[in-house]
Amino acid sequence: MRPPRRWPAGRRCTPWPRRPAAEPPFERAHRSVEADLANDTVTSALGCAPGAAVLVMRSISYDRAGRPIERFTGFHRGDRSRLNVEVFHSTDR
């Protein structure tokens, strides 16, 4: 597991340029959630025991042209997290 990235003071979290306000936030996103064990950096940030179970969510969002516009990695304590999933049937495809 890679530790959370530390950004220099004053730097924005996303390396991609901002979109015009009229555009929707994103067209699609790919997200994954996996279980892992907390390393020292995650342990310190979340206040959990070393080696504790954590959920790691990674996401990349894309605009209408398929360009990546946002990415993030989030670490969540396994003993204090819940994953809710809502599924809809769509005939659009």
Indicate the topology.
Elements: E1 28-37, H1 40-46, E2 53-62, E3 68-77
Antiparallel strand pairs: 1-2, 2-3
Please provide a written account of the structure:
Helix content is 8%, strand content 32%. By secondary structure, it is mainly β. It has a domain at 28-77. Strands 1-2-3 form a 3-stranded antiparallel beta sheet, with no helix packed on it. Mean pLDDT is 81; it is low at 7-12.
Condensed summary:
With 93 residues, this protein is mainly beta. Helices cover 8% and strands 32% of the residues.
Low-pLDDT runs: 7-12
Rounded mean pLDDT is: 81
Helix content percent band: under 10%
Radius of gyration: 16 Å
Strand content: 25-35%
N-C termini distance: 36 Å
Number of alpha- plus pi-helical segments: 1
Topology pattern, helix = H, strand = E: EHEE
Q: Class by helix and strand content?
A: mainly beta
Strand order of the largest sheet: 1-2-3
Count of β-strands: 3
**Main sheet characteristics:** 3 strands, antiparallel
Shape: elongated
